[in-house]
TrEMBL record:
GN (gene name): EEF1AKMT4
Compositional bias (Pro residues): 227-237
Record Gene3D superfamilies: Vaccinia Virus protein VP39
Function (record text): Protein-lysine methyltransferase that efficiently catalyzes three successive methylations on 'Lys-36' in eukaryotic translation elongation factor 1 alpha (EEF1A1 or EEF1A2).
Protein name according to UniProt: EEF1A lysine methyltransferase 4
Organism in which the protein naturally occurs: Anas platyrhynchos (Mallard)
UniProt catalytic activity: L-lysyl-[protein] + S-adenosyl-L-methionine = N(6)-methyl-L-lysyl-[protein] + S-adenosyl-L-homocysteine + H(+); N(6)-methyl-L-lysyl-[protein] + S-adenosyl-L-methionine = N(6),N(6)-dimethyl-L-lysyl-[protein] + S-adenosyl-L-homocysteine + H(+); N(6),N(6)-dimethyl-L-lysyl-[protein] + S-adenosyl-L-methionine = N(6),N(6),N(6)-trimethyl-L-lysyl-[protein] + S-adenosyl-L-homocysteine + H(+)
Any GO BP annotation: methylation
Domain (Methyltransferase type): residue spans on this chain: 56-164
Family annotation (InterPro entries): Lys/N-term_MeTrsfase_sf (IPR051419), Methyltransf_11 (IPR013216), SAM-dependent_MTases_sf (IPR029063)
Recorded superkingdom: Eukaryota
Amino acid sequence: MRPCPPPTHPPRYRDWGYWEQRYRQGAAEPREWLGGFARFRELLEAEIKHGDKILVLGCGTSTLSYDLHEGGYRDVTSIDFSPACIEAMRARYSHCPGLRWAVMDVRSLAFPDASFDVVLEKATLDVLLVDEKDPWRVSAPAAAAMHRVLAEVSRVLRPGGRFLSITFAQPHFRAPHYAQEAFGWSLRHAACGDTACGDAFHYFLYVMCKGQPLTPSQLALGERLWHPPPPPSPPPPLDEEEDEDYLLAIEL
């Protein structure tokens, strides 16, 4: 199964109706964004313990939840906001009682506080920023939407729990969203992907550990999310005389 490449500005990926229609029209076959479990297995197994209670956000039709189950992680809950998707996944994996499925919005998780040891997402949060024109200056609504989801993730994590985020977003773009003191977690990341082995681009695993502090530099990075630098001023136009002098100075 070939992984799906990172989205190149798909205008409807944030719309519930797009996904529901897509799944209803027969696109509920297994589909991987950024790659399957095998691509990230080594990194994930270093962060997840057998016996952990795991929540997978925006599961889609990925086999990730099933692959975790088959790898010995038997307590996995997966959510998606598409009823058609969850219906398909329940039917496909009905033989795995340890896999649970629920229709749910990542912005409002219907779980009690401190419910999970691990929250895992793969390309789900990328959708929240897919319409942004400038990744250096994320719009206030997009930053607020991301903050709302991350606050929910922090709330349902147990002390010592880990939030694992797999994305193609580079640290200078994604880390400011995660480096928020309000979430009460630490932050680190690792790159994965090998162009020598056919990978067209690198992916990143971000690891947030609940109850551990951010570094001062990370706190400063997170603060810049809400106070981005102003866009650079355009250079002043050349007047006609300067333009002529410039052209005359060119040696052909």
